[in-house]
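Hypothesis: this fold can be encoded by more than one sequence.
Test: take the structure tokens below, design a sequence, compare later.
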């Protein structure tokens, strides 16, 4: 295998579990030096298999580092809580200490609490926003001075299709919509410094359908959308492995991808797609000299104009 990322220093937050663990191993195979950051939240069966933020272990990050080293790669484990600014600063300092710099940030932290808005608790909101949105800002703020100084860098953030449409999990959707908007703004800020920023939406076999709270949630979602109760299980069962997404993630870190920035990519197996941002589809206009629109006029014109371009609330993810 060609070492497309030979010598690149990569910090992967949330790298100790889920899809990111596969990505860490692949990036190391590509020649990168990988700092596997993971706070080590433990999946708690008493909570339906959700991550318990009060229980932590070093095992997840250590296992990924061992797999990389056993394969001849270079990796170090880091256990800092990057949802805190001090933790993010320490993680970046660790990368500088062991590798001498930081070239690439892959932010892949992910904690979910599955619930509809009406049932969502303030604690469930705070946990998801804190663990999914805060790390993106905290780590970006800490790595950018080093990337700007060296006039090169890659920022990658995992997001989710929930930023476009979903049922339930408004906390999750709000967190990742925030990550997406953060990415767009940063991409503009650092483009003159030869730094790119992009989002990736990974569709891969994950934990939602493999924990009791997730199975119950998928069944409720399918009923609410008028779909069969086992549709969610079928979707999870056919989702491709996370390893299939690794080549595209590595490509975005290469020199050849230097012109790609501010974009949102959806990855599902061998299907790699790109999504646009919110853009005006059409408009209606009434000149000021003709007075303001009236409700009666809008009743007449809306069904034939703006309503023709309304986006769907739900669609099947590929």
């Amino acid at each position: 295998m060609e070492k497309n990322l030979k010598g690149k220093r990569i910090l992967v937050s949330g790298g100790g579990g889920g899809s990111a663990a596969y990505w860490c191993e692949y990036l190391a195979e590509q020649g990168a030096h990988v700092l596997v950051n993971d706070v080590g939240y433990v999946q708690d069966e008493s909570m339906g298999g959700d991550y318990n933020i009060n229980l932590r272990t070093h095992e997840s990050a250590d296992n990924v580092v061992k797999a990389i080293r056993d394969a001849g790669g270079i990796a170090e484990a880091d256990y800092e809580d990057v949802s805190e600014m001090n933790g993010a600063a320490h993680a970046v300092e660790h990368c500088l200490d062991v590798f001498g710099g930081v070239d690439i940030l892959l932010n892949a932290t992910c904690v979910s609490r599955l619930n509809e808005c009406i049932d969502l608790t303030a604690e469930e909101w705070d946990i998801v926003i804190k663990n999914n949105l805060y790390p993106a800002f905290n780590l970006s703020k800490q790595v950018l001075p080093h990337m700007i100084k060296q006039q090169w860098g890659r920022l990658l953030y995992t997001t989710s299709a929930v930023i476009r449409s979903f049922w339930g999990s408004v906390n999750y959707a709000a967190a990742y919509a925030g990550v997406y908007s953060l990415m767009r703004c940063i991409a503009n800020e650092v483009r003159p410094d030869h730094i790119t920023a992009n989002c990736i939406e990974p569709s891969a076999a994950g934990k939602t359908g493999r924990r009791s709270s997730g199975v119950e949630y998928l069944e409720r979602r399918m009923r609410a959308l008028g779909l069969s109760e086992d549709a969610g299980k079928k979707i999870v069962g056919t989702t491709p492995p996370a390893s299939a997404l690794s080549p595209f993630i590595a490509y975005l870190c290469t020199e050849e991808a230097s012109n790609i920035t501010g974009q949102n990519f959806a990855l599902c197996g061998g299907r790699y797609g790109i999504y646009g941002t919110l853009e005006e589809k059409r408009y209606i206009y009434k000149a000021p000299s003709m007075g303001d629109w009236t409700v009666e006029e809008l009743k007449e014109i809306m069904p034939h104009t703006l309503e023709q371009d309304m986006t769907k609330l739900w669609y099947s993810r590929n």
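The longest helix spans residues 170-190. The two ends are 29 Å apart (CA to CA).
Hypothesis status: open.
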